[in-house]
Amino acid sequence: MAVHGHPDAARQVYLGLYALQHRGQESAGIATANGQNLSNIKGMGLVSEIFTEDVLRKLPGDMAIGHTRYSTTGDSALLNAQPIRVESTKGLIAIAHNGNLINLGNIRLRLERAGAYFQTTSDSEIIVQLIAHSKAGSLVDAIADSLSQVEGAFSIVMMTRDRIFAARDPRGFRPLSMGRIRNADGPDTVVFASETCAFDLLRAEYERDVMPGELVMVTQDGVTSRQYATGVPQSSCIFEQVYFARPDSRIYGRWVQESREEMGRQLARESGVLADLVCPVPDSGVTAALGYAAESGLPFRFGLIRNHYVGRTFIEPEQRVRDFGVKLKLNPVRNLLQGKRVILIDDSIIRGTTSRKIVRMVRGAGAKEVHLRISCPPTVSPCFYGVDTPSKRDLIAANKSIEEIRQFIEADSLAYLSLDGMLHACGAPLAPGENGGFCVACYTGKYPTQWIDVDEILPARELRPDQMQLSLAETQ
Ligand SMILES: O=P(O)(O)OC[C@H]1O[C@H](OP(=O)(O)OP(=O)(O)O)[C@H](O)[C@@H]1O
Ligand SMILES: NC(=O)CC[C@H](N)C(=O)O
Ligand code: SF4
Ligand SMILES: [Mg+2]
């Protein structure tokens, strides 16, 4: 999230991060600039826990960037929280990065030999270190130079003492949008966010997406842009439409709600089954279940209630917490389920943790039959582009057939949405074999980037007990 040209930029970014909490719940941070100084406050935990009124007051300036972290490379620790700030001959630069880089090893080694001192173990710092060590004359050229050297997924915002930058990788893996707040008595406030739902709280109008391979710069004189990479085919993450993004966001030019509802409708067309009720697995299964119920004509009922004080379980780094999380989070509504044939709709099965527990829960509450329908194809390959799907060993669909998964989760029937069905629901053209500008590698094993050196990807390690408390890193 980034804001340029607002007297209370920190608070605007805080509100935006609140709306983006679902994208990362491990740590959060806000950096501000006022033309002279750059302040940066980060902490472990949720946005609302870290940024109290007192903390926000320590962040002056009319420019700010912010981040909520879901670790994909490097520990889940305060050290790796973002924004990351690096001092260089080109001045102070702070970065907030969504995505994951896949050519870390070589670059890091080369930079260290050239005298770079890395403060973190996250991939994101590489981008700023490359800028700091670039031979390019101007800062914008140094940024373009850095972005051309890194491979993988990056939607980034950066800030210096007096400028904001926003950029997307050439394939446009992750979303990034630009918006404006119109000010009656002065220039517009320019904002950037990973999802458009962050604009609504700020009353910012969506203007456009930052394009794949584009670098946008915002200064006192306005917005300028350049295309630092061209000719690379787009491969935007389809899992954003399936699970990651919020249904009230518009990403890659399409409302997530529309895609998900259509995935549900298509699922009903492809694998309908006789039943009494359609129940979503909240939250992420709700919109697809609405589509499924509408298409099948079956009643839609909340047979599982979600405790709203528990976060997302899939993006939780610790398996122990994920296991416990499901029961803590979801509870059956017995009087709705008793004696019924139930169709459960969820968006995905990754490790199978959630599905197995839920099917048992629903049957334990008296359901006569439990049918599970999944609004995307089987997840058979890991992601290296910013979604921390586990290695093949832990991906249930990489190791078991659909029938074996059905037996494992103890459902009466199980079906997934087809690949073409998912692509079409997300607005891709109907030509079979065409991905319509989407990455679908976790469903096909065909990666849009060149060979990926898996060893380069440092696993996000488990939290140590001392890292689980709220701690603040403050730098002025
Ligand atoms: O097979 P598994 O490894 O259990 O992971 C899959 C589950 O995790 C996700 O939900 P999650 O609880 O993270 O988030 P939500 O509350 O947004 O639905 C997803 O929607 C599935 O329900
Ligand atoms: N969720 C993300 O975008 C992660 C950003 C970065 N790869 C990190 O691990 O900090
Ligand atoms: S591999 Fe899957 S989760 Fe990763 S970017 Fe591609 S579609 Fe998204
Ligand atoms: Mg879910």
UniProtKB/TrEMBL annotation:
Which residue spans adopt a coiled-coil conformation according to this UniProt entry? none
Binding-site residues for Mg(2+), renumbered to this chain: 284, 346-347
GO MF terms listed in the record are: amidophosphoribosyltransferase activity
Q: Which EC number(s) does UniProt give?
A: 2.4.2.14
Tell me its cofactors. Answer: Mg(2+); [4Fe-4S] cluster
Which positions in this protein are listed as binding [4Fe-4S] cluster? 237, 383, 439, 442
Cofactor info, note text: Binds 1 Mg(2+) ion per subunit.
The catalysed reaction is: 5-phospho-beta-D-ribosylamine + L-glutamate + diphosphate = 5-phospho-alpha-D-ribose 1-diphosphate + L-glutamine + H2O
Domain of life, per lineage: Bacteria
Q: Which residues belong to any copy of the Glutamine amidotransferase type-2 domain?
A: 1-221
Q: Give the PROSITE patterns listed for this entry.
A: GATASE_TYPE_2
- InterPro entries in the record: GATase_2_dom, Ntn_hydrolases_N, PRTase-like, PRTase_dom, PurF, PurF_N
Record pathway: Purine metabolism; IMP biosynthesis via de novo pathway; N(1)-(5-phospho-D-ribosyl)glycinamide from 5-phospho-alpha-D-ribose 1-diphosphate: step 1/2
Keyword list (alphabetical) reads: 4Fe-4S, Glutamine amidotransferase, Glycosyltransferase, Iron, Iron-sulfur, Magnesium, Metal-binding, Purine biosynthesis, Transferase
Q: Does the keyword Secreted apply?
A: no
Q: What protein family does this chain belong to?
A: In the C-terminal section; belongs to the purine/pyrimidine phosphoribosyltransferase family.
Query: Which function does this protein serve?
Result: Catalyzes the formation of phosphoribosylamine from phosphoribosylpyrophosphate (PRPP) and glutamine.
Query: What's the protein called, per UniProt?
Result: Amidophosphoribosyltransferase
What's the source species for this entry? Acidicapsa dinghuensis
Q: What is the lineage of its organism?
A: Bacteria, Pseudomonadati, Acidobacteriota, Terriglobia, Terriglobales
- Gene symbol here is purF
